[in-house]
Each structure stands twice: as structure tokens, then as C-alpha cells.
Amino acid sequence: MRTCILFILIGTLIGCAGNDGKIVTACENAVAERLGDKPFRLDPHLLRSTLQTDAAGVSSLRGPVVLDPGLSSEKTQTVECSARFEPGQSEPVVISLNFIW
């Protein structure tokens, strides 16, 4: 849980850097929500480096997520996330979140 909180805080700080940071933070928060209390680790800088925005304004990113870091049950998966800004909203909406085993 501490790891999750740490990455959410890091994501919040990155979010101050503009819309790209807000997309990364929204995706990190969506991962945290989906995984609940399960410990995980994400690299927000790596996620941000993969960010691409299409002509329709949908931003997509992908990167490794480590589940149960440091435990014997540790596993690495890839997470793919897409989000966009809705008219009149300052925060992006996650429209797709996939874990690839």
C-alpha cells in the first residue's frame, strides 16, 4: 500500500507539468483503483516516455507494472492505458485500461 501511495504522490507531482503529466497520473490512479490493496510498482517517467496522442485527442501509453514487488509472488505485466480530455474538464478521463499477461 505504501508503494501505491508513493507512486500516486509522484504522479501528482508529475501532473503539475502539464497535460501529459495529467494523463500519466490518471492512468496511475486507474491502475491503483483496479488493483485495490495489491502492492504494485510503476515507473511514471517510463509511462510518460511512451505517451502518444492521436488526431482525436486520445492519449495512449504503456509500460511494465510489477505486481507484489519484492515478494516471492512478484510478477511483471504490461499495462496499456488510454485517456482523453473531455470538453470543459480540466482532468482527463481514462477510457481504456488493459493488463497484458
Question: What keywords describe this structure?
Answer:
101 residues, alpha+beta, five-stranded antiparallel beta sheet, 32% strand
How would you explain this protein's 3D organization?
Strands 1, 2, 3, 4 and 5 form a 5-stranded antiparallel beta sheet that branches. The longest helix has 17 residues, at 19-35. The relative contact order is 0.19. It contains 3 helices and 5 strands, in the order H-H-E-H-E-E-E-E. The protein has 101 residues and is an alpha+beta fold. The chain has one domain. It has helices spanning 2-15, 19-35, 44-49; strands at residues 40-42, 52-53, 59-67, 75-84, 93-100. Helix 1 (2-15) runs antiparallel to helix 2 (19-35).
State the oligomer. Answer: single chain
> From N to C, what is the helix and strand string?
HHEHEEEE
Given helix and strand content, the structural type is: alpha+beta
Main sheet, how many strands, which sense, barrel? 5 strands, antiparallel
Give the fraction of residues assigned to helices: 25-40%
How far apart, in Å, are the first and last alpha carbons?
Answer: 22 Å
- Gyration radius, rounded: 13 Å
Number of helices: 3
Total number of β-strand segments?
5
- Mean pLDDT, all residues: 89
Extract low-pLDDT stretches: 12-16
| Global geometry | elongated
What percentage of the residues does DSSP assign to strands (E)? 25-35%
What is the total domain count?
1
